[in-house]
Amino acid sequence: MSTPSRMWAAAASLAVLAATSASADDPFLRRTATVRVVEKVGPAVVNITTEQQQRRVANPFFDLFFEPSMRRPVQSLGSGVVIDAKGRVLTNEHVVRGAETIRITLADGRELGARLVGGDPNNDLAVLQLDEAKEVPWVTPGTSAGLLVGEPVIAIGNPFGLSNTVTTGVLSAVDRSLKTGDRTFHGFLQTDASINPGNSGGPLMNAEGELIGINTAIIEGAEGIGFAIPIDVAKRIVHELVTKGSVAPVWLGIDLQDLEPAMLELLKLPAGQRGAIVNRVRAGGPGAKAGVLRGDVLMKIDTLPIRAARELYEVLESSTTGQVHELHLLRAGKPLTLRATATEIPAAVVADLANERLGMKLVLERGVYRAAEVRPGSGAEQIGLQAGDFIRAIDGQALSNEQSLRRAVLRLQGRDRAYLRVQRGRRLADVLLPLS
Length: 436
Fold this sequence. Notes:
By secondary structure, this protein is an alpha+beta fold. The protein has 4 domains: 40-59 and 70-130, Thrombin, subunit H; 152-244, Thrombin, subunit H, CATH 2.40.10.10; 250-344, PDZ domain (Pdz3 Domain); 347-434, Pdz3 Domain (Roll). The chain has helices at 3-25, 33-41, 60-63, 93-96, 231-244, 261-267, 286-290, 309-317, 347-358, 379-382, 402-410; strands at 45-55, 71-82, 88-91, 101-105, 111-120, 125-130, 152-157, 165-180, 183-191, 203-206, 211-218, 226-230, 250-251, 254-258, 276-281, 297-301, 304-305, 324-331, 334-341, 343-344, 360-365, 368-374, 390-394, 397-398, 417-424, 427-434. β8 and β9 form a beta hairpin. α9 (347-358) packs across α11. It is globular and about 80 Å long. The relative contact order is 0.08.
């Protein structure tokens, strides 16, 4: 027998021995990779039940004048996963939003109370702390770097209250953008593993049992289209929530402007690309420190192509302090890549932005923002706003402290109008404000 033939025979013998050994332990080959992942991670997956008291209006006319006394408990269900030995649970923020009580049911049937450590609605992530963390199974978060489209994934959750339901599929896409209302969220993992109501906050694992994402969203009416937050994003948010209790709004200190058709032709951008032009670099900001110049054209941030100015600000809404972003620019027609570190936006800059964009100087008085001044010629003056008016909300974001104003003002960037809830005396009105 020739040497190659002997090598093939030896390999075949080893394969037979391996198969024989596997068959002896598992004659029907039932313990697949999926089974091993479920055995490893399943005990750390929890069912989350929350309760809040909601008004039940029996007579709307009567309730205009008297405090309604009838309230009814409202429950919501979701999933979560224990991520450390201290009993911290990672889930979606919308699962626990407004909750007055939180109950956790472990896979072994134990029921424990939990409290909210912190939540971040921009990234839809929250961290809970179990009241008792003794002998609670947990799983270490893995990484979402280097994921392969088409690789197998496993989801575990509590769809429709059916605890520890397992679904499998493949990773359909990475860096997927998802539009909801007037906002687009970026950077999702897409999978065809079945995700249903109640799966929110549950883990998405790869075939090695590594936690790679947190299931968060579905497209209503679609089948085989689910979305998860990459675990590398979640780890940054968890750190912020555990150490600070909230995620601070960040900025890069650059203002962008959409490119008009004439500018596209003048700049001679590559076919099919758009970008947005830098029309201001704020002194001392992260962009200035990175070397960004007025007139640069931002083509891409990290892996996301930029088609409009608004997209940069949407990315930053999900960013965290200290996160480094790669800015892919065109300067005088030549490509350039710079790295800028996102930082918490200073309070003084927020006040300047509010004045610039809203046309008002806002001051905080007993938990309410008052327009101390209205700038002549601004959109605020044009629609009749006056000094002394109270600004209760901007685009649905209630204003009650500096943090809420920061978030609301940052969301105005890249927009040409905003909805304000204004109080004058005892009257409330929703007005559409053209932005400066």
